Amino acid sequence: MTELISRLEPDSRAASRGFSDLSIRNLFIIPTIAFLIIFNVFPLLYSLWTSFTDFRASTTAPANWIGLANYRELLSDPFIWRNFTITAKYVLISVTGQVVVGFGLAMLLNRKIPLKGLITTLLLLPMMLSMAVVGLFWKLLYDPSFGIINYFLGLGKFEWLADPDVALYAVALVDIWMWSPFVMLLSLAGLSAVPKHLYEAAEIDRAGPFYTFFRITLPLVAPILMIAIIFRTMEAFKTFDHAYILSSQPTTELIAIRLYKMAFLEWQTGLSSALAYIVLIMVVAITNIYVKYLNKAKAR
Amino acid sequence: MAEIKTKGEVALNRVAIVAVLVALMIMLMPIYWIASTAFKPRSLATTVPPTVVFEPTLTPFAKLFTKRSQLRQPVEEDVYEAAPWWEQLIYDDGEQVVKNRKTGAITSSGYWDRYKNSLIVSIISTFLAVSMGTLTAYGFSRFKVKGEQDWLFFILSTRMLPPVVVAIPMFLMYRTVGLYDTHLGLIILYTAFNLSFAVWIMKGFIDEIPKEYEEAALVDGYTRLQAFFKIVLPEALTGIAATAVFCFIIAWNEYAFALMMTSRNAQTAPPYIPSQVGSGLPDWSVIAAGAFLFLLPVAIFTFLLRNHLLRGMSFGAIRK
């Protein structure tokens, strides 16, 4: 009889067994939220404060409140603007390259190819590797005297990483090599979702391959491709690892590298905190676009 | 794609197959070059034209794990003959191993310590991130949470910041509380870093487990916790395994935080391997050996994970 009652009243039964649903929910969620607040939100508030001071972590001198002076200094510094310009150029080159190569590979793989599964998996390998170690190895491949790139392309002693005009492209090429597979993977998912009957209908209408591609394939893959582009833009904007290892050219000094040097080599803690905040605002802007598309894609 | 019918389509498909194979070769070339250089003697690592056919040797690995004297001294014949095989590998190149004066044991290089640090930090932070992430994902998936979307966005947003931005205040905090250059410091950072990822991926997996399973268990007299551990967790096991491997790979490959938050004691392999290049003529075969051993676990995991890669890389936003 008690068994029957408890079945009819689930709440009282749960309460009688110790943990209520509410307390389980809190037990499961609150530690994570608390942990992330302590190790993400708190440091950011801390650096917001340092960004208004002239603090240098290399000295024991106390921090002086200097208001917006750091921000004013940064925003009027042409070198910082140059770092942002370089970063924008780098993002544009590498994301465009990844979309072209990645989408091209996906179009090729979206056919009857023998061993398709194995080939796709092998193509995914680059993006799973450590960007730092990959950067180190491309240094060997790019080497002017014994690198295999120059040898196979017959470029003689071409200086990929020392030439100020080429170095940024060389760094972006490594990014393209690593992350084209990511665009390929998302494009493949998008392509496989295109309903087959649309192609059959196009065939009956005797539509040419170009018409089929631009009127059927591309519009239907576009939303998922857009996610890949935003995701890669966000990541490329943050690039540090391989760019820092590959090249020390002024023309390849991305904003993350400038920030690292300012904070950990020059020890301008206050100033670099202010720069970090400027970068942060930019990242939040890109993130918002990303999440908007993410929700749109999920709603479909 | 459309079915292959006409002769033209067959030819087009052949062209596509050739193009895919060429692309595959180009994409895998750098990885092949790392792997092959790791088995070359020093003299063949940087030759012009590049050496493609060679007799593989383990010398680079022997040199990777041992400390060698800076001066290259020729080794006498009888010393060479009497040495055990692993020392012969090193003597082969004319370099002398550094030995402990008292015990005569070969002194090992810093690589193994860094590799061990990588293992410790990655495994522990993965365990923490996945266990906390799974619980939180379950909480969000099964219970009503006020402002659920906002909380989930907050969790995701912690991953969107460039590491360098967070590193400045973290460095100051860590220096104050004594977490700088400690394993615990890196473990905490990587756990925080991976936690958002684990929550998002696990939520995708748990959402797909029918709620009816637990409801049936509750009717059978299980408590919520019992239903979670005995019904939901086993169902989510593949998802947990995939998420764990992802978190492990991310922590394993991480470079920026490791560079800024450690100096010696807790340094992991990613900042260590590039620092070995230094100035002058680096021994690329030894660096390749270090890189090869470091990339090996990731390569194996990639093959195990291939079916989950899409969901993992896109934060579970897109289902395959």
Automatic annotation (TrEMBL), chain B:
Its main location: membrane. Keywords: Cell membrane, Membrane, Transmembrane, Transmembrane helix, Transport. InterPro entries: BP-dep_ABC_trans_perm, MetI-like, MetI-like_sf. CDD domains: TM_PBP2. Residues 115-305 form the ABC transmembrane type-1 domain. Gene3D superfamilies: MetI-like (1.10.3720.10). It holds the Pfam family BPD_transp_1. It is found in: Cell membrane. PROSITE patterns: ABC_TM1 (PS50928). The chain crosses the membrane at residues 12-35, 119-140, 152-172, 184-206, 227-252, 284-305. It is a multi-pass membrane protein. Belongs to the binding-protein-dependent transport system permease family. This is Carbohydrate ABC transporter permease. It comes from Roseibium salinum.
